[in-house]
């Protein structure tokens, strides 16, 4: 098996992707050798056929020999060669498809794994639609490289050489006349090359933009329908679609022009050779059979040239796809796991969390969190409130190490989270977000996240504990009910209960709820609240909420504004302070939920 490649080295060199591709192709060396052998035998079988006909014409028919025996033998040989050529071509195609598909499957797997390793900052910058295109269609283009381009380069260039040898053997002078077209072919190929590359790249970029736009719309469908944005989005889609249509047409037009130029050149050469060769036959300088074989060869001569040039397109796409795939491979996660991480296990965690002088910004010069200090004791339940954009979710993202702090440190049980493995850290922390992510699969699989070591009984017990058992039992197939993609068959509360059950089975020592009840009505929130108290038992728990009612019973409440902690204490202590929290509380008493505009107004009070 090929080793995973290290694409970072040599990234700037354009040959680097091809060198890396060669690493993937290496385990299939013997298959490629077998393909070349089959191609050689197939070509020989093909090209010997006109020579046989020439033999019949010149050595039998033209001299009136009437040798029936050799005529039948040559006809049988001709038929045998045709069958042989077909068989070789069949084996060669199968072998090449197998090698090509295996290489691409391996690249696709490595690419998917590499994308998984990236940090959140990578996903912030890269639209998911374009990643989908790279994993699906760009890797498919690589397959075409092996099964079409490589095949054509090997088979057609060998055919060309064989034809020239055969032609030279028949008549060197006619061969030299035929070669006049070669400089013209090079001229056409070079002049078309740059333009074809440009048109191809343009159409690929337009396609990838259209896919990205479609993916974005599908994920935001609720919003689009709620805001009646269908017409607007349709207009934007049509613009992209029209651009793609135009770019595609331009590309096809260039290709057709390129291919037809070759066809015309082929026909003109046949006319030229018929003229020159015809005169030579009249003058008895060559035999008629030689002219026949020569014309057949010159027709065959343009076929491989045309084939090779037709692969130009695929070669262009391979270049573009390769560089795009290699750009992904070259991306290194910003959040890196230290090599020594395995030596510092995060085991038997008590759940002591310390933010020490934490500084962070998504852009280097725009701080979102500045010199933040916070100590959370093991088993403590902390509520975090604050204005929109205060930095609450960012704080949690830092604790989960989706991003790295730019200053200060975050410690769990005194250990810097940058020193431990991602696996240990994410086992320690359980995160429940506003929109829990559910996979297409059964409820059982969704709760245990496809981990077979978690038993069905454990899943059922967890669901009973959080109060989801009733709801699940009422479903058609109970725990085996299949949930559609992203859990769209369930209500927001039901989805959230399932994500709570997940927390129970995975038993993280630190539990984070980021606006986990924001989408729920007050009755469901009550249900979730009681589930939360069960789940939070014995765990350090951080709850971010806009609704004061969600966090008012926490051991301590942190009030954040503009990346800083502005107030801290229990619900009663904070009310007594009569500061920002008290304003938030009063407001929430009046409106139940605080609108963002109001929060901003309150922030200025704070
Ligand atoms: N992925 C991101 N890339 C760039 N900026 C971001 C990103 N996520 C958040 N921000 C910015 O960082 C700031 C803090 O955002 P954060 O989501 O932490 O606030 P929050 O207090 O959780 O807000 P809310 O209550 O609305 O969820 C905001 O100004 C926001 O625009």
Automatic annotation (TrEMBL):
Residues 33-317 form the ABC transmembrane type-1 domain. InterPro entries: AAA+_ATPase, ABC1_TM_dom, ABC1_TM_sf, ABC_transporter-like_ATP-bd, ABC_transporter-like_CS, P-loop_NTPase, Type_1_exporter. Residues 353-587 form the ABC transporter domain. It comes from the Bacteria. Keywords: ATP-binding, Membrane, Nucleotide-binding, Transmembrane, Transmembrane helix, Transport. This is ABC transporter ATP-binding protein. It is a multi-pass membrane protein.
């Amino acid at each position: 098996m090929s080793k995973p490649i290290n694409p970072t080295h040599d990234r700037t060199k354009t040959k680097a992707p091809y060198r890396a591709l060669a690493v993937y192709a290496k385990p299939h060396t013997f298959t490629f050798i077998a393909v070349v052998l089959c191609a050689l035998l197939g070509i020989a079988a093909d090209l010997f056929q006109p020579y046989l006909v020439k033999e019949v014409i010149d050595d039998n028919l033209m001299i009136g020999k009437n040798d029936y025996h050799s005529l039948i033998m040559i006809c049988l040989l001709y038929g045998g060669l045709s069958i042989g050529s077909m068989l070789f071509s069949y084996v060669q195609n199968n072998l090449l498809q197998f090698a090509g598909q295996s290489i691409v499957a391996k690249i696709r797997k490595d690419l998917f794994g590499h994308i998984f390793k990236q940090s959140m900052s990578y996903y912030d910058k890269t639209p998911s639609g374009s990643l989908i295109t790279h994993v699906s269609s760009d890797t498919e283009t690589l397959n075409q490289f092996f099964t079409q381009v490589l095949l054509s380069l090997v088979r057609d260039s060998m055919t060309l050489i064989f034809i020239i040898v055969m032609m030279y053997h028949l008549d060197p002078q006619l061969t030299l006349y035929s070669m006049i077209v070669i400089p013209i072919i090079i001229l056409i190929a070079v002049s078309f090359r740059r333009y074809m590359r440009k048109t191809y790249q343009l159409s690929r970029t337009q396609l990838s933009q259209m896919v990205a736009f479609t993916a974005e719309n599908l994920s935001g469908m609720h919003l689009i329908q709620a805001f009646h944005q269908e017409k607007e989005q349709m207009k934007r889609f049509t613009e992209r679609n029209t651009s793609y249509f135009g770019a595609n047409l331009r590309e096809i037009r260039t290709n057709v022009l390129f291919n037809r130029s070759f066809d015309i050149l082929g026909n003109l050469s046949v006319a030229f050779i018929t003229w020159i060769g015809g005169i030579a036959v009249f003058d008895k300088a060559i035999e008629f059979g030689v002219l026949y074989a020569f014309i057949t060869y010159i027709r065959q001569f343009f076929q491989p040239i045309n084939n090779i040039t037709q692969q130009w397109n695929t070669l262009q796409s391979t270049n573009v796809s390769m560089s795009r795939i290699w750009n992904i491979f070259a991306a290194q996660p910003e959040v890196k796991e230290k090599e020594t991480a395995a030596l510092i296990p995060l085991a038997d965690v008590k759940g002591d969390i310390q933010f020490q002088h934490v500084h962070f910004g998504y852009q280097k010069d725009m701080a979102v969190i500045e010199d933040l200090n916070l100590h959370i004791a093991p088993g403590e339940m902390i509520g975090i409130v604050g204005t929109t954009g205060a930095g609450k979710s960012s704080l949690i993202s830092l604790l989960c190490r989706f991003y790295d702090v730019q200053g200060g440190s975050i410690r769990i049980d005194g250990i810097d989270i940058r020193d431990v493995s991602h696996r240990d850290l994410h086992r320690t922390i359980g995160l429940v977000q506003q929109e829990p992510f559910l996979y297409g699969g059964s409820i059982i699989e969704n709760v245990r996240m496809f981990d077979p070591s978690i038993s069905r009984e454990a899943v059922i017990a967890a669901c009973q504990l959080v109060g989801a058992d009733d709801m699940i039992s009422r479903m058609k197939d109970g725990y085996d009910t299949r949930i559609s993609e992203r859990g769209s068959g369930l209500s927001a509360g039901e989805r959230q209960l399932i994500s709570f059950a997940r927390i129970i089975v995975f038993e993280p020592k630190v539990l984070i709820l980021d606006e986990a009840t924001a989408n729920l009505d007050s009755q469901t929130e009550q249900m979730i609240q009681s589930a939360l108290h069960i789940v939070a038992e014995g765990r350090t728990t951080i709850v971010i909420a806009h609704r004061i009612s969600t966090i008012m019973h926490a051991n301590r409440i942190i009030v954040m504004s503009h990346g800083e902690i502005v107030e801290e204490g229990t619900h009663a202590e904070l009310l007594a302070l009569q500061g920002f929290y008290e304003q938030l509380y009063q407001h929430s008493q009046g409106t139940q939920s605080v609108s963002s505009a109001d929060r901003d107004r309150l922030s200025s009070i704070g």
